[in-house]
Write a structure and sequence with these properties.
With 405 residues, the chain is an alpha/beta fold. The chain has helices spanning 11-22, 55-68, 127-136, 152-163, 186-196, 202-208, 215-223, 290-293, 335-353, 358-376, 386-403; strands at 2-7, 27-31, 44-46, 52-54, 72-75, 79-85, 88-93, 96-105, 109-111, 124-126, 144-148, 167-174, 230-232, 235-247, 254-259, 272-275, 278-281, 285-287, 299-302, 307-310, 323-325. The strands form five sheets. Strands 10, 11, 12, 13, 14, 15, 16 and 17 form an eight-stranded mixed β-sheet that branches. Strands 1, 2, 5, 6, 7, 8 and 21 form a seven-stranded mixed β-sheet that branches. It has a two-stranded antiparallel ribbon with strand order 3-4. The structure holds flavin-adenine dinucleotide.
Length: 405
């Protein structure tokens, strides 16, 4: 029986493991990916101060620190079920069952789909897949592509593809349908861009700062959006053009794009064909939280956090005895926030066996402060109103505790 099993070797899981090992807990980190780092490994972007955030280097720092504390990290281990048993949890994996007293689920986020006609053709991929192929596997995803979806993640990854020498024609909206909804609505997309502009990487900031915060100016900006798009890193960003279909016989050959009204309605007769050999679909991110659901952890839908999240308190503890969560499973935020949450979760787990340890209390208080500070200064913020979202989860935790007292 382990003291703690951590599912996910991303920044949250690795940081939690380091904190657990610092307090001498018997810790095992498992991850289904062949190497540790989670989504951090694929990241490469410039911070507003001009510094580069290199995910490979940041991962190595975390792995080196974890190894310095003799942390056991097993990759290629996929969790498909968890049972709550008498003294803890039985974690079912492709390599057998692992028993543990405590469990931290740090499984990260997944990409939302944005289905378009033709999206099953070879050459169509999610924007995250393009990031992993380019930055992790060093595979060229194609010669010339287009991005369907304008948001922080697609902007960051489009830049990464450019840096790797991959040609992108432009970024445009996915056509409105029952799934894409707001992602295809120029006004909604503009709202999102303006709200995150002050926190986004430098080039994105230049883009966002072209528009004021007042709603009427945003509407004006949508109505008079430049026909050739607004250029970011030399690449046109279109929010008044939508990709209506992806065309080809055995693979992607082109896309059909049309002009759209300020509300996302297609303008008849405005269709044009753009030759490309790959398409990246960017529908946004949501917390990957199913593993917490199979052990009956209560959930709360919080739009500001990206979807359904396991109910948890500020110390990353859920109402299920011994179950903790950290990172993007608790809401979509940057890897720095995920790492800080991981450290906090690790300290909270250590606290279970050291109830009256004053040093640990101080460290937990500092770690909570650190999560807030990093959140406030994050260069990438995926959702507006993150603090309001966090408060909703906290309230849900308190309500749950009161109801079950
Ligand atoms: C496609 C994509 C691209 C992103 N790009 C950026 C970016 O450029 N910049 C940025 O700041 N943020 C980005 N993010 C957000 C990113 O999720 C956070 O930055 C950060 O990596 C979250 O850390 P985490 O530890 O919570 O999760 P992750 O880093 O996602 O790590 C979770 C780990 O859990 C493992 N896992 C999940 N389920 C299981 C299971 N059942 N069994 C075993 N292992 C499992 C996964 O393999 C993964 O390694 C991106 C997210 C996604 C999904």
């Amino acid at each position: 029986m382990r003291d703690i099993v951590i599912i996910g070797a991303g920044p949250a899981g690795l940081s939690a493991a380091i904190a657990c090992r610092e307090w001498d807990l018997d810790t095992l980190v498992i991850d289904e990916f062949p190497k540790p780092g989670g989504r951090l490994v694929g990241q490469l972007h410039q911070e507003p101060d001009g510094e580069w955030w290199n995910g490979i280097k940041e991962t190595q720092k975390l792995v080196d620190k974890a190894e310095a504390f003799n942390t056991e990290i097993k990759c290629g281990v996929s969790v498909h079920h968890i049972e709550k048993v008498d003294n803890g949890f039985a974690v079912h994996t492709n390599q057998g069952v692992i028993d543990t007293e405590n469990l931290l689920v740090a499984s990260g986020a997944a990409e939302s789909p944005a289905p378009l006609p033709g999206w099953t053709l070879p050459g169509v991929m999610s924007i995250g897949a393009a990031q992993v192929m380019t930055n992790v596997h060093r595979v060229r995803v194609g010669n010339k592509g287009i991005v369907a979806g304008v948001n922080v993640l697609s902007a960051a990854i489009a830049r990464e593809l450019q840096l790797a020498g991959v040609e992108l024609h432009s970024m445009a909206l996915p056509a409105v349908n029952t799934v894409t909804k707001d992602a295809g609505n120029p006004k909604k997309v503009m709202d999102g861009l303006v709200r995150i502009a002050h926190l986004a990487p430098s080039a994105f900031l230049r883009f966002g700062s072209k528009f004021a915060k007042a709603a009427w100016i945003r509407n004006l900006a949508v109505n008079f959006y430049p026909k050739g798009g607004v250029k970011m890193w030399g690449m046109p960003i279109h929010i008044r053009k939508a990709i209506v279909s992806i065309n080809g016989t055995t693979q992607v050959e082109s896309v059909t794009v049309c002009k759209v009204t300020a509300d996302g309605e297609p303008v008849a007769g405005s269709e044009e064909t753009i030759e490309v050999d790959f398409v990246c679909i960017a529908g946004g991110l949501y917390p990957l939280a199913e593993l917490a659901a199979v052990i009956d952890c209560p959930f709360q839908y919080v739009e500001e956090l990206g979807g359904h999240v396991p109910v948890h308190n500020q110390q990353m503890e859920t109402p299920v005895e011994g179950l903790y969560v950290a990172g993007n499973i608790t809401g979509i935020e940057s890897s720095k926030v995920a790492g800080a949450q991981g450290t906090l979760a690790g300290l909270s787990i250590a606290k279970k066996n050291e109830k009256s340890n004053a040093e640990l209390d101080i460290k937990i208080a500092e770690a909570m402060k650190q999560v807030k500070t990093i959140r406030e200064t994050a260069s990438i913020q995926f959702h507006p109103g993150i603090n309001a979202g966090r408060k909703k989860v906290e309230k849900a935790y308190q309500a749950y505790e009161q109801a079950n007292a």
